[in-house]
Amino acid sequence: MTTQKPDVRGFYDTTTATWTYVVWADGNADKRCAVIDSVLDYDIHSGRSTTVSADRVIDFIKGKGLEVQWILETHVHADHLTAAAYIKEKLGGTTGISRHILKVLETWQPIFHNEDDTPIDGSQFGHLFADDEAFSIGPVEAQIIHTPGHTPADTTYIIGDAAFVGDAMFLPDIGTGRCDFPGGSAEDSFRSTRKLLALPGAVRMYVGHDYPPEGKRDAACMATVAEQKKANMRVHEGISREDFVARRKRDDDGKPVPKLLLPSLQVNLRAGSFGKALHGVQYIKIPLNKI
Q1: What confidence tens digit (pLDDT) does each residue in 167-183 have?
Q2: Residue 80 and residue 262: Cα distance in Å, rounded?
Q3: Cβ contacts of residue 5 below 8 Å, gap of 6+?
Q4: Please, what is the end-to-end C-alpha distance for the chain in angstroms?
Q5: SS3 sequence, the chain?
Q6: Share of the chain above pLDDT 90, in %
Q7: What burial class does residue 80 get, using C-beta atoms within 10 Å of its C-beta: 0-12 exposed, 13-18 middle, 19+ buried?
Q8: Degrees (nearest 5) of the Cα angle 178, 179, 181?
Q9: Is 202 exposed, middle or buried (0-12, 13-18, 19+ CB in 10 A)?
Q10: Tell me, what's the pLDDT at 52?
């Protein structure tokens, strides 16, 4: 954790309620930046993808004169497709994700049978981060910490005084991410939130999604650690592990799967690629009666 204060620009995708971030050291001659949790637009009914959301991010990066150094994923998303491959094609950069994705790849390969285009060693990503690995974004020091619970591979990127937590925590009035996916764990989620709430109170915590209560507020992306400790409705100070786990399991019981679960997983496990084509056509598989 450093006192460096990188600039952060968030892009909200209303269709999937996802936040994408661009992070860089504003005012510095070094223009390298990171893109975190990008979105590729996908219509499940027509099977068509577009790049409107990613192009907004690309236009911003070009307008600022930034250079993409990293294209990072906090986890393998189940509710939107990543635009990592598209952004890499357009702007370069290294795709990165936690090495714990190897466990997720092992989990889903017997369901998708995607051996031909989804390496189980994670080599489709440019870099697999080890736990607590330090790295940098231009002049800004950064580090990852393993924050499982929503999935076994969830990772938080701490970049200067900002933490990008994915679905490990949401804004105070929303709480935390669900824990009922394969390998997910309410117990792990509680331990991960304790790690995050142990960060200094002034740390800016940027969330992966926001689901603003209708009519009460607009979508937002950041709360400080101090604000989360005081007011997060699931994990504020004083909430016991037992109470959190019981409520999390009760709320997740019978919850519908995200509508983009199957397309998202297949594409995101390939770092954003649609995979090998058959007779010039790429496909999304729908396994029957497997999840």
Answers
A1: 999 999 999 999 999 99
A2: 10
A3: 160, 161, 162
A4: 40
A5: CCCCCCEEEEEEECCCCEEEEEEECCCCCCCEEEEECCCEEEECCCCEEECHHHHHHHHHHHHHCCEEEEEECCCCCCCCECCHHHHHHHHCCEEEEECCHHHHHHHHHHHHCCCCCCCCCCCCCCEEECCCCEEEECCEEEEEEECCCCCCCCEEEEECCEEECCCCCCCCCCCCCCCCCCCCCHHHHHHHHHHHHCCCCCCEEECCECCCCCCCCCCCCEEEHHHHHHHCCCCCCCCCHHHHHHHHHHHHCCCCCCCCHHHHHHHHCCCCCCCCCECCECCCCCCCCCC
A6: 96
A7: buried
A8: 105
A9: exposed
A10: 98
Extract the tokens encoding 62. Answer: 């070009």
Do 91 and 68 form a contact (C-beta atoms < 8 A)? Answer: yes
**Dist CA 155 CA 147 (whole Å):** 5
The percentage of residues in the chain with a pLDDT greater than 70, rounded to a whole number, is 99
CA 63 to each of CA 55, 114, 176, 248: distance values in angstroms, whole numbers, following the listed order: 12, 38, 34, 42
Per-residue pLDDT at 1: 65
Three-state SS across 211-263? Answer: CCCCCCCCCCCEEEHHHHHHHCCCCCCCCCHHHHHHHHHHHHCCCCCCCCHHH
